[in-house]
Amino acid sequence: MMRTGMTDPPWLAEKDESVVRLVESLRLELGDSLFQLVDHWDDQYAVGLADPDEPSRLVYVLTDVEPVGLYGVDTEFPERPGLPASVRKMGYADLVRTVVGHLAARKPAR
User: Fold this and answer.
1) Which of 14, 19, 85, 103 has a CA between 20 and 30 Å from the CA of residue 45?
2) Cα separation, 3 vs 91, whole angstroms
3) Where are the extended beta strands (E) located within the chain?
4) Where are the domains of the chain?
5) Strand pairing of 46-51 and 71-76?
6) What distances in angstroms separate CA 14 from CA 32, 46, 63, one per listed residue?
7) What is the pTM of this model?
8) Is the dihedral of CA 42, 69, 65, 104 positive or negative?
9) pLDDT of residue 82
10) Which letter, b or e, does each residue of 64-100 get, where b requires 16 or more Cβ atoms within 10 Å of its Cβ?
11) pLDDT category, 23, cuts 50, 70, 90?
């Protein structure tokens, strides 16, 4: 298992190594302030990346998607709670664009 950060929730260490590596990669690329980790799913291959200011705005990511190298991704909106998930498959670069686009969509420009 790869190491997790000092501020990571304890449940992250119980996730699959693919989730831990993904979180580390996203933090290196995007920093620590864009998202907070959430775990609403009893799945070792799933993690939520939530807007720290609006936790119900999140990107749900699955790492056990075929073919290898793709992620299952769903976006959730606070203004549309309870909608059924529509998981899309995408590569890492598209995942990064989705995370930034979805979580930064309501943030004021600095």
Assistant:
1) 103
2) 23
3) 36-38, 46-51, 54-62, 71-76, 88-90
4) 10-103
5) unpaired
6) 21, 11, 14
7) 0.83
8) positive
9) 59
10) ebeeeebbbbbbbeeeeeeeeeeeeebeeeebeebbb
11) very high
